[in-house]
Amino acid sequence: MTTKNMAPLIEKEQIDLLERLSNACGILSDVGEIRKIVLESIKPYCDDVHIDALGNVLAIRKAQQPDALRVMVAAHMDEVGFMVVEKEEGGLFRMVAVGGIDSRYLPGKPVLAGKEHVPGVIGAKPIHLMKKDEMNNTMELEDLRLDVGPDGGDKVKPGDPVYFATKFQQVGPSLMGKALDDRLGVVSLISLIQHAPANIELLAAFTVQEEIGLRGARVAAYAFNPDLAIVMDSTPSHDLPTWDGSENIYYNTKLDAGPAIYVADTGTLSDPRLLQRLFKIASENEIPYQIRQPGKGGTDAGSIHRQRAGIPSVSISVPGRYAHSPVMISRFNDWKNTLTLVHTALAEMPKNLLQRN
Amino acid sequence: MIDIKDFLHNLLSLPGLSAYEEPARQKISETWKPLVDEMYVSPIGSLHALSRGVGSEPRPKILLACHMDAIGMMVTGIEDGFLRFTEVGGIDHRLLPGMRVNVHGKRDLPGVIVMPRAELLPEGNGTAPVAMKYLFIDTGLLPEEVASLVKIGDLVSFAQEPSELPNDIVMGHTLDNRVSVAAVTICLEELKKVSHDWDVWAVATVQEEETLGGGLTSPYAIQPDLAIAIDVTFAKGPGASDYRTFPLGKGVTLGIGSNVHPGFFKAVKDVADRLEIPTHDELMPLYSGTDALAMQIVREGIATLVLGIPLRYMHTPVEMVAMKDIQRAGRLMAAFIAGLPQDFMQRLHWDD
């Protein structure tokens, strides 16, 4: 029996779900909007669902056969954003960043503040009032302010989250929106649950606090105590032309080149057995893939593989340009192939995969 | 009655970069049509609309200039489907990374301005701002499709949608200077209700942001006795607090300086005070940075005035203006014009 036909497809329903999740907002553990959508999407398909002490959604879909491999699949719900830390006069507020945000993306951008998504902006001094050479300096977040209008000050308070105000768009071959890192992974994991392979016990972790140190995944992995783990995330593509036309050898990943499989990043050396398995499955099923350039960066695998006595782990990401900025761009085809690769790998995963000779 | 907020939101959603003002001009022209007696377009695109006075011939004329052109960008190159661009009007390049834009190719394409990582830039850029020449626009389309839809010289507009903040604050791009178009519209509507001796020429000028082309040419054609440039000025806000800045929503400004006739200033200021319309004196010792700079020196010279509407975050896609100040500017112009005596020019003096 071929497993290809069983693979979950990405159709209008999944894209609509991605749109909802990209437009929804959630930082740190404060991801109520995301959790709600996740819970309503997976509950009918799970044998057990619960929310843990940090806010992770932990869901189990049992195997249809005894002694199945117990596989954890993780995708993080939180996005990068800000928290309001100080109120000033006239609708102005100071913020701190939550997650790694390059402050060069901030001036002149629209944002949403608090649970009510109060519209505001991160303003910038008019170019006309600039001193000589001032434009050579990066505007740091501490010099910028959230502005909800001179009479809007009562609608926002310290402690409120702040998000990029970006509406999702599907444009030609691309998906454009905020927080595709890692709402793409969240929708993929929802689809995996809805089309779970019968041969494995699927331990689905929708994690929190990934962006501030992979913290949700750490406790989720402890709780699940799986045989192995696959992390589904989004990884940067820096596949732009270089300034002088020389070859770009710092691309990390490329759009349209398929799922990005991690060999090594800052936090993880992927389990070689899982890697070989993924390469084999991809080749046999003619699923395009790319190896993410080993180097900086990390996923939830960084905390999962060091949990308990050790958990063999690997990460597979949808490549995306402009991560942690107001607008990311990923390709529909890369996403589709990522989900197909993970699903096929799970469905064809031999029980003895991890046995040492 | 015209719903001014609605008109403004519509106008803000239309492109109209300097020299390509057509979409904005269309909208303004259809809105002004019922308010004026005649209307035509100048050779370089400014919209001239006349609200005829009832004074005896030769009737004196006042020109109200509000520039309708927008700042934006223009495509300068295409590399692997990514667009290089330059600015039209003054834009701080530090605002650009992450900004959503519309590329006006064979059809309008949504895009985002993006910043390559340091490794792809000249050595030593580090975390410093990336120069405009190294930024790209990514449309999300594949290179072949981009090549078939976009060419060098195509225009790029800000894509930020206008929105509303509490207590009637409008937020969006190109509030500079479409809010002044709204103010002139209010003025024309008010004038419709009263009789005025003077001919009033409402002019939506072109190319203010680049060449002051409209400001130099419309007064040549119209030959007004008085001319007001209605433009935005700096509101107080983060990074803007000195003498050049004014509180948002707390009144309009009247310019004092080389581009302003002091007698004209005093006459308008008196009307504002009488009607209790709050105004601030805006000191502009050298150049006003408005159409008044150009209008003042057309033909044998024209008595000009600068009326300012405070705006926060000028030349960003997230400019803010208080509707209240737009209303004030419109009402002040209308009240001044309604009270203008036929012989005002004979009474207008330099020295007391």
Write the layout of secondary structure elements.
The complex is a heterodimer of chains A (357) and B (352).
Chain A: H1 12-23, H2 32-42, E1 48-51, E2 57-61, E3 69-76, E4 81-87, E5 92-98, E6 109-113, E7 118-122, E8 146-147, E9 161-164, E10 169-171, E11 174-177, H3 180-194, E12 200-207, H4 215-224, E13 228-236, E14 260-261, H5 272-284, E15 290-291, H6 301-304, E16 313-321, E17 328-331, H7 332-347
Parallel strand pairs in A: 3-12, 3-13, 13-16, 14-15
Antiparallel strand pairs in A: 1-2, 2-12, 4-5, 4-9, 5-8, 6-7, 6-9, 7-8, 10-11, 11-17, 14-16, 16-17
Chain B: H1 4-12, H2 22-32, E1 38-41, E2 47-51, E3 61-67, E4 72-79, E5 82-88, E6 100-104, E7 108-114, E8 136-138, H3 143-149, E9 155-158, E10 163-165, E11 169-172, H4 175-193, E12 199-205, H5 213-222, E13 226-235, E14 245-246, E15 252-257, H6 262-275, E16 279-284, H7 291-295, E17 303-311, E18 319-322, H8 323-338, H9 344-347
Parallel strand pairs in B: 3-12, 3-13, 13-14, 13-17, 15-16
Antiparallel strand pairs in B: 1-2, 2-12, 4-5, 4-9, 6-7, 6-9, 7-8, 10-11, 11-18, 15-17
Interface with most residues: A-B, 59 and 62 residues
Helical percentage of chain B? 25-40%
| Shape verdict of chain A | globular
Q: Which parts of chain A are unreliable, with pLDDT below 50 for 5 consecutive residues or more?
A: 1-5
Share of β-strand residues of chain B = 25-35%
Order of helices and strands of chain A: HHEEEEEEEEEEEHEHEEHEHEEH
Radius of gyration of chain B: 21 Å
